[in-house]
User: Which sequence fits this backbone?
């Protein structure tokens, strides 16, 4: 359900865009998208824990900023799972690029002071990269919590099934033991009767 809902949220973008490029975090989501979409897919391994997020994000942010600066992408939307509690999540789409403030900054309505060390375009690029990194970190953290919540529900269901199966097997074994004990007693009684008759 987790990967299928995320995949379904991305497919409408393909209908409205001639050249869609997808950056996908996680193998399962990537294979699901490749089956249903003809868009170019760049795959990143999914971090298994929060510890793996920072390094993963550096790679993603660098690639996205390079593609955006090189005009290979004009907009960036992130479709991700928003954690709503264990086993529940909502799929949300967030536009990250172009940044709403970027046009204002580029148009000098919100001036960036000139420094001796860096140019305005460089400062803008750094600001975009930082904004992208922070927002992606938050979104991936939420998605990680959502995925682990779904796994928790699955594990809980599996545990209940194992407990019910164990109890059922235990009852069956008890019934078989009782039947065997009864049969042994009947066999002993029958053999003792035959012995008396002789």
Assistant:
């Amino acid at each position: 359900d987790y990967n299928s809902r995320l995949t379904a949220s991305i497919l409408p973008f393909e209908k409205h865009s001639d050249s869609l490029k997808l950056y996908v975090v996680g193998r399962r989501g990537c294979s699901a998208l490749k089956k249903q979409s003809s868009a170019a897919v760049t795959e990143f391994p999914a971090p298994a824990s929060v510890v793996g997020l920072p390094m993963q994000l550096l790679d993603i942010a660098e690639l996205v900023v390079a593609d955006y600066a090189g005009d290979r992408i004009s907009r960036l939307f992130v479709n991700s799972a928003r954690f709503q509690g264990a086993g529940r999540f909502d799929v949300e789409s967030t536009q990250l690029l172009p940044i709403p403030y970027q046009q204002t900054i580029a148009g000098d309505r919100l001036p960036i002071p000139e420094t001796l060390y860096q140019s305005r375009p460089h400062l803008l690029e750094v600001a975009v990269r930082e904004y992208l990194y922070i927002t992606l970190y938050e979104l991936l953290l939420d998605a990680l919590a959502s995925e682990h919540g779904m796994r928790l529900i699955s594990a809980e269901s599996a545990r209940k099934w194992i407990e019910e199966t164990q109890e059922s097997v235990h009852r069956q074994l008890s019934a078989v033991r009782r039947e065997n004990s009864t049969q042994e007693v009947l066999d002993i009684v029958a053999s003792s009767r035959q012995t008396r008759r002789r």
Q: What stands out?
A: Helices lie at 2-15, 27-36, 53-69, 102-106, 120-197. The mean pLDDT is 83. The first helix runs from residue 2 to 15. The beta strands are 21-25, 40-44, 76-83, 89-97.
